[in-house]
Amino acid sequence: MNRILKTLPAAITLALTASVAQAALPIDFGGYFRSGFGTSSEGGKEACFGLAGAGSKYRLGNECETYGELAFGGEAFKGENGFKIRLNTRLAFVLPQNKDFEQYSPAWREANAIAENIGSGAFSKAKAWVGKRFYDRQDVHISDYYYWDNSGPGAGLENIDLGGAKLAYAIVRNAYTNDAAPTANDDKRTVLTHDIRFSEIKTNQDGALTVGAEFMQKRDAPGATVSTPGGNLFSVLHTQTNLYGGFNKIALQYGTGSGAGTGGVNFGANTNDKVTRITEQIMLQPEGTKWSGMGTFVFENAETSTGNKKWMSAGVRPVYHFADNMSIATELGYDQVKPDGQATRKLTKLTIAPQLSAGNGFFSRPALRAFYTYAKWNDAAQAAAGAGTSLSRTGVFGGSTNGSSVGFQVETWW
Question: Signal peptide span per the entry (predicted)?
C-alpha cells in the first residue's frame, strides 16, 4: 500500500500531462509492416530470389524479412485563414526473421514539420516544410521499385498554384554512409540536390503530367578521400486516372553523374555516367468483375566507367476475388540484365498466393497470405550472384538453377 501511495502522485501527473498534450496535439498513428515465415525446398529459411544488376525484385512470396514503419504525427498549431503546422515522424525497422526476440537498431526515416496555407494568391494553398522526409516518392508496388525518390533531410515549398500547374521546390542534403564498414570520412562526401517539379499539368481527360529536374551539387567537405561528382536527373511522369477502376503511370528519366541512379543521389557514380529509363505500371479493377491486378515494365540503359548495362523487367500480378474477403493472387515476374561483353543474366519468378483480406480491392489490407514461389535462372545469373545468396552456387540450392519456397505472410498499412 505504501508503494502504491508513493507512486500515485507521479501517475496522476503523467495522466494530466498526457491529457494536456492530447488536447494540444491530437496524435495520428499510422504505419506499415510485413512479416511471415517459410522454408525453401532444400530446407532452412525461405529463399528470396533477386537478379544481380536488377534494380528490384518481384515481391509476392519473395520477402524474407520483417519490415515495419510506425508513423506518429499531428496538428501542432492552427491559426487564422487556414494556416496550420503539422508535425510528422516515422520510425522504421527491419529484422532478419530468425526468432521471436531480435535486437536491431531502428531508423528515424522521417521527422519534419509542414506549414500549410502559408500565404495568399498563388501561395494560398502552398506548403513549406523542413526536416527529414519521404519527398514525393514514386514507386511500382509489386516490385517495390522506387524509380523517383529524392528523400532525406531538406526543406522546400510546394503546391504553389501557377494556374495551369503546381510548382514545388526542395533542397535536400544527403551524405554518404557505409553501413557495412563505416569510416570517419564517410559523411564528408556530401551532395545538395535542388529539386524543381511542375505537376498537375492537364494533358487529356483524367490525365496529367509531372515534369521534374534535379540538380545535384557536389559539396564534399575537406578530407573526403573519395569524391562524389555533381549530376542531374530529368523526369517526365504521365498519370492517367479513372482507367477501368485503376490508373496508368509512365515515366521517362535521364540522369548524369550522381543523378545516374534510381531517383536519388548515386554516391558511387562517376562524372561521365549516364542512365536512361522508362518505367510503366498499370493497375486495373474493372467494375462488375471479380478481377483486379497490376502490371509493370522497366527498361534501363546505364552507361558507366566500368561498362554499360541494360536491365529489362516485366511482371504482372492478377488477383481473382472469388468470395468476400477471399482471393487468390498470382505473380509472374521476369528480369534480364545484359552487361557489355558478358552473358545475359535471366531470372523468372512465379508465385501463387491465396489471401484473406480486409476487402476485395487490389490494395485491400491487411492481407494474410499463404504462398508458393518457384524461380528459375540461368548460368550467367548464377555466376553473377553474391556469395551465399539464393541464386549462387554457395546458396541453399547449390549448383541447381531453380528452386522454390513455401510459407505465410501478413502485409498491412493503416
Answer: 1-23
